[in-house]
Design a protein that fits this description.
Blueprint: H1 3-54, H2 61-149
Helix pairs in contact: 1-2
Length: 150
């Protein structure tokens, strides 16, 4: 292994680690989004159930104000949770983009190493062939010289 190849392997190892870390960040972002979507769904169900429960029975003005105020707070909570889900989606997309970039960089590095290794192997074969050709030429020259000496 040449010094340059060893250096490329070190860089490739770093790229593999970057991809692994980006993949882990992507997994965490996916989990967080799923959790926040579950929370949103739970709040939506609660709001729907509360709406349904307020439609029954007689209501005095004071109770109606309280229900309206509570519904207003629930709507604010619902909107805040929607914003949270939206932010999680954006973080997920950013994490996915980082992972894809890291993956492409790792793949490019591995292709570069492969091409360099293929190039080095080709150079070695050419050198060996040149040496064999030189040896064959020298042997042929010796035979000619030996044939002319007789």
């Amino acid at each position: 292994m040449t010094r340059q190849h060893a250096q490329l392997e070190v860089v490739a190892g770093m790229k593999r680690e970057e991809e692994r870390q980006a993949g882990e960040a992507l997994r965490i972002a996916q989990t967080k989004l799923a959790e926040e979507e579950e929370r949103l769904h739970a709040v939506e169900i609660y709001v729907d159930e509360y709406h349904a429960s307020t439609l029954t029975g007689t209501v005095d003005l004071r109770r109606l104000r309280g229900q309206h105020q509570f519904l207003s707070q629930l709507e604010q909570t619902l909107e805040a949770q929607r914003r949270q889900v939206s932010a999680c989606r954006q973080r997920l997309e950013a994490a996915r983009a980082r992972w894809l970039s890291a993956r492409m960089q790792r793949q490019a590095m591995e292709k570069l190493i492969e091409k360099r290794m293929d190039g080095a192997a080709l150079d070695a074969r050419r050198t060996e062939q040149r040496q064999q050709d030189d040896l064959a030429l020298q042997a042929s020259a010796r035979r000619l010289a030996a044939g002319n000496a007789h």
